[in-house]
Design brief:
Two copies of one chain form a homodimer. With about 425 residues, chain A is of the alpha/beta class. Chain A contains 15 helices and 17 strands. The longest helix of chain A is centred in the C-terminal third of the chain and has 21 residues. The radius of gyration of chain A is 26 Å and the shape is globular.
Chain lengths: ~425, ~425
Amino acid sequence: MNVTILNIGDELLIGQVVNTNAAQMSQMLTQAGMTVAGVFTIGDCAEDIRNYLHHCLAISDAVLMTGGLGPTKDDITKKTLCDFFGSELYENAEALENVRRIVASHGRELTETNRLQAWVPRCCTMINNVLGTAPCMWFETNDRPSKVVVSLPGVPFEMVNLMETEVVPRLQEHFAVGAIVNKNLLLHGIGESFLSDLIEPWELALPENIRLAYLPQPGLMKLRLTARGANSATLQRQISEAVSALYPIAGQYIMGEDAESLPELVAHAMAMSGRTLATAESCTGGNIAAKLTALTGASAYFRGGVVAYSNEVKESALGVRHETLVRHGAVSEATVREMAAGVRERLGADFAVATTGVAGPGGGTPEKPVGTVWIAVASAAGVTAELLHLTGRRAQIVERTCNAVFAALLRTVRE
Amino acid sequence: MNVTILNIGDELLIGQVVNTNAAQMSQMLTQAGMTVAGVFTIGDCAEDIRNYLHHCLAISDAVLMTGGLGPTKDDITKKTLCDFFGSELYENAEALENVRRIVASHGRELTETNRLQAWVPRCCTMINNVLGTAPCMWFETNDRPSKVVVSLPGVPFEMVNLMETEVVPRLQEHFAVGAIVNKNLLLHGIGESFLSDLIEPWELALPENIRLAYLPQPGLMKLRLTARGANSATLQRQISEAVSALYPIAGQYIMGEDAESLPELVAHAMAMSGRTLATAESCTGGNIAAKLTALTGASAYFRGGVVAYSNEVKESALGVRHETLVRHGAVSEATVREMAAGVRERLGADFAVATTGVAGPGGGTPEKPVGTVWIAVASAAGVTAELLHLTGRRAQIVERTCNAVFAALLRTVRE
């Protein structure tokens, strides 16, 4: 069963907004056993919407549209869909009640512009959007079997909630979708080319119904195995066998399974250990703390951290010795060790991590060029430090540093 | 002059990777005076690549492709392009030298898989990718005037560098592109519907060659004016007049111009003031520090911060009084004021900001439901605090809190 995604909005074509909706929708659809045949991003233009709606209906069984449902002049999706299906707009009572509730929750009066949000085409099934004022609309074509067009709001959390609770279950039911099993492996410490050479014989021996995807991120490689078939239990067994066969070949790089990111593995490992964590960040500037606290439940193990951007703060808030900074510099093994040990002691944590480096673009020297980063992990057993030579721009260097820290921490916690 | 973007990769269709390339490319092309007619995302499938290449060439003057250039089995773009243009692959000496240099910089030997990266179709112009092993390829069709197809690597920082230094300048020259002027305004404290009602008369009075886009983000509204025409100076004057006319209507919400985010405005305001900043974060978990340090030059004003996730750290690292936490709770005006004053004093900064709140999904109570957030700004003049009632999921609540903090800080610094 094929789905196409049609994201509408001038803001996507001028590049002011990153299309995160496409990725989130694709992930939900794929994991629900549907195949995304293509993603099309077009502007707020009635003719383009009509043309690509025709094209998407020609190549897929269902079209999921987002965007263009706001109350502003440039939002024309609803009117265009109404014309496309030869219908007319009416004020839906349930949608109006929802708009009224949301506007009231912001302590405001209902305006005429707000009220327009509750108008939908007569021929669609209105799906209430409890998190926002733009309703979701479900259309079915006259084909046999009928195809489906769904119009969703472009606001990401509204779209996600509607997909999870309404649209994906309704699609699975309407199209009687087959079984699918996914498996993610997170690897650290090996690049795409070298991994590809290493696991080629294993990859060639995979069953035909299992597909492998390389999903590289800065400082992290995600391998995704996708098995399709009739029977979930069989697919699950096939996947388990394939993963078991990979460990003898590449096990040293595998940080964990069934996670989207290393912070998820850190959260799990910390929860299993019952211990606590503190962070001392210089070049990562708060990103390690932000990534850990992005996951719910971080408060169970994360005590807090210090972003020590200036040398004075490294001394006053972390207890790094002035002589260490003078003799070795801020980017040095001695400094990163004192940062990790200092934050562990001052914040009263079982484990601590620290970073200091040159994230660029400025600040590099011949001895310590951009990409020179020291990381450390402190525990009751002592402090271990590691020197990284990273490439890329500032954001990539920060990302790679975070992933190296998470990998080093995982190895320490699991010991 | 119309451009289409064709992003290739199964990883995009299964939603494991967010297509940030589309947004970055669209932004660069739009700001260079080109119009993006559509963005198409398809899988690593030769037939789809051929079909959409034909479609894109039919509706646009240039097609920019990304992805599918890696050394792994599922990367087939190069072979497909070679067939499409009826050419053959050869080993390009300059590309090989580049691959050799990059592999050597990682301290590794050149493998056969690495070497395959240097093969390109004879009919293309090879554009060297100094940041990665996959070369960029420029093709021209036999049409009059000739259309252009460019194949770029999918790795974001490699693509960005090639676009900036090679592809955009070559496209502007090849197609003799007209003038364009963009203007961004960042607004805080008003939602899309209410802003739309407020500025409707102004919007209707805009010259026909100026287009307005609403670009809402959590807790922030970006308005983008785009003027097209023959003469840059005329467009600049039109834009200035339009912006001047907006201030009497909505000036109280306008935080600044010509910036992509509030942290950019904060960085500018701090640099102008010559003062320093410190942060004390609870519910934002390091995001304020991470957003500020994502911009180069943050070290000129940012001394550092404390992520005080646990109450013990609020006391020990920020000096919040135990009685305050016991009597008022961690999410309270009294606590946020002591956090801001404490971090300002301990880190020796001129300004300080603090956050404490319930980001959810757990932790809410009837008195302090999810979305209850206190923020504070401390300066030599004292501490001001503000209570926010936010909606959305954890990530949105964090984003909205960050933007509220940046807006409050900007008002204080500018006073």
